[in-house]
Amino acid sequence: MINNSLIAMTLTSFLLVGCSDTQKTSNPTSAIPLKYFSSGSCKMALTYPYDGMSNEEMDEFVRGKSFFRIPWVEAPSATTARDGLGPLFSANTCMNCHPGNGAGVAVDEKGDVKRDLVFRLSIPGNLNNIFKMKMPFCPEPTYGGQLSVNGNHEVPFEGTPKVSYEEAEGKYSDGEVYSLRVPSYRIDDLNYGKLHKDTAIAPHIALALIGLGLIEQIPQADILANEDINDTDKDGISGKANWIYTPNSETKKLGLFTWKAGSPSVRFQSANAASNDMGLTSSVFPKENCMPSQKECNEAPKGYHDFDMPDSRLDAINYYLTHLKVPLPRKFEKKKEAEELFAQLTCKACHTPSFKTAEGVKIQPYSDFLLHDMGDDLSDGHPNFLATANEWRTPPLWGIGLYKKVSGEANYLHDGRARSIEEAILWHGGEAEKSKEAFKALSKSKRELLLHYLETI
Question: Do residues 278 and 85 make contact, with C-beta atoms less than 8 angstroms apart?
Fold first, then answer.
């Protein structure tokens, strides 16, 4: 007779092995239920399940993890549990883009674009009309809304993205020189003809999968309370919510996830990524990721199931991603001084330090989950429902100091152009221009204090 409790304990031990540096972390308040939080800060720090799961819940967590990590294959295949990859795709598993559940890396050591960096494609369109049509943006007419860099047998891939960088120097107020890399993008090997002449090529790097389940539990009213679309308080910072339609939906939903807040839930974003990145159909996105003119794609063999990713598998992935622990902040002796500096630079106006979930759990994501204009230098030319080309959802900062340890390397900002947190700050513009200039005016010791603080939150 199989002992399910023993199996669950063994699986839990396997999932938690190798990360126990508790002396380096701090519990910000004793009121926080530790079931949601991890004291580890090693390479496995973003992979731990919530405490207190039943055997059945742990089974679902492990099942979701397997669909997230194990490669999918093209149909027809003897492996019907994971067939249906493509016909056009970029990656064959979720963890290709989210190593260790961490953030993606833009280019490899040779300078070639990695699968972590996807290329969204759109052409200009009236935002009001787009919203009425319940579309996030107008996709490129030949290649669709995202470039696929791979194709199944006898299905030509769409193209090969390329990136090059130029260094641009600047100076702090104390005379210290810094350098930022300015990216330039193109797409070679276009197998289905030329791109539309007005195509916006928008590179977006994979985000770290930190605290997704807890973010979903933030009361909507608490997020909307920080909206100031017309900047009525005249502080130069507006912030607006992105309202989106999901397929077959007649109601607007608050966007919480992705760089442009274009997804209302983890389940929806999982289905969205499965469709765009791996060519997997689901009940959310039931159509193959083929454009009408892509003959080989449309005629490719289909998977065994009605959907490549049936609801049970999509639900399992959703369960896995929404039940991952959040790493606690690491200890920092000068934390209070650094927090005061963070506030002084008005960073907290967008990177809201904390919220409470509907259950009353205090979380510290350092994001308001609203859209902000970050200036022309960070524009990607690509809208998403109410988000304009210059607008970005404030990315949560919790766990940002673990990116390099978890992923092996670390890039920042939407396209990974920033090689450090410092560079990411120096790219801030638009509503964050004053904060950036205030950072540049700090003494070197104060800059280092703030950067060290950000590494610990």
Answer: yes
Average pLDDT on 115-142 reads 87
CA-nearest of 117, 126, 111, 81 to 99 is 117
CB 101 within 8 A of CB 209: yes
From 169, 189, 193, 188, select the one nearest 179 (Cα to Cα): 169
Q: Residue 140 contacts by C-beta under 8 Å, 6 or more apart in sequence?
A: 121, 122, 123, 195, 196, 199
Dist. CA 456–CA 437, nearest whole Å:
23
Token pair, residue 191, equals: 């197998």
Write out the DSSP string of 180-215. EEEEEEEEE--BTBPPPTT-EEEEEEPPP--SHHHH
* Per-residue confidence (pLDDT) for residue 81, from 0 to 100: 77
- Which band of pLDDT confidence, cut at 50, 70 and 90, is reported for residue 3? very low
Q: Which amino acid is at 399?
A: G
Cβ(86)–Cβ(39) below 8 Å: no
Q: Cβ distance 324 to 24 under 8 Å?
A: no
Residues whose CB is less than 8 angstroms from the CB of residue 335 and which lie 6 or more positions away in sequence, other chains included: 453, 456
- Residue 9: predicted pLDDT: 38
Say how many C-beta atoms besides its own lie within 10 A of residue 183's C-beta. Answer: 15
| Element spanning 38, H or E | strand 37-38
DSSP-based three-state secondary structure for 155 = coil
For 313-369, how does the pLDDT look when each residue is reduced to its tens digit (9 = 90+)?
A: 999 999 999 999 999 999 989 999 999 999 999 999 999 999 999 999 999 999 999
Q: Which two tokens stand for residue 28?
A: 């910000």
Would you call 342 helix, strand, or coil by DSSP?
helix
CA distance 348 to 339: 9
Q: Is-contact 50 322, C-beta < 8 A?
A: no
12 pLDDT band (50/70/90 cuts)?
very low
Strands (E), 331-416: 355-356, 362-363, 371-373, 391-393
Q: Mean pLDDT in the chain?
A: 92
- Residue 25: per-residue pLDDT: 52
| Buried b or exposed e, range 291-329, using 16+ CB within 10 angstroms | beebebbeebeebeeebbbeeebbbbbbbbbbbbbbbbb
Q: What is the CA radius of gyration of the chain?
A: 22
Q: Tell me the torsion sign for CA atoms 10, 12, 17, 21.
A: negative
- Token digits of residue 184: 């330039």
The 10s digit of each residue's pLDDT in 32-86 is 567 999 987 889 999 999 999 999 999 999 999 999 999 999 988 877 778 999 9
- Cβ(260)–Cβ(387) under 8 Å? yes
CA 320-322-324 angle, to 5 degrees, is 70
**pTM > 0.70: yes or no:** yes
